[in-house]
Amino acid sequence: xxxxxxxxxxxxxxxxxxxxxxxxxxxxxxxxxxxxxxxxxxxxxxxxxxxxxxxxxxxxxxxxxxxxxxxxxxxxxxxxxxxxxxxxxxxxxxxxxxxxxxxxxxxxxxxxxxxxxxxxxxxxxxxxxxxxxxx
Length: 135
Prior knowledge:
Layout (H helix, E strand, L loop, with lengths): L9 H13 L5 H13 L8 H4 L4 E3 L2 E3 L9 H4 L21 H13 L5 H13 L6
Antiparallel strand pairs: 1-2
């Protein structure tokens, strides 16, 4: 296989190799090759010092730190449309969200055995606030 990487972003190539190293389903040979390629690139498969220091990368124009923070991340997730972003508190016609899908999601939360009691209670409260029958 030809390895012409001249037009590829080296950071993304390195990220792919790092992903291979962290993938539990990747074979030993694949991991060895990925490690060799990273070393050839002058990159270690350990996290970079900047990542360890808490720097954040931009993903779709937003800082990414793998942690959801209420309020801060509502715009990116669309939750602002449901949590006070409109007069109804559910979704407005301009938000791109379907009111019935939102309600269905909360009803599904109540009936999902894998969901905790606290989340189920919040879903019930939301549905009660919007005069939606549940349970």
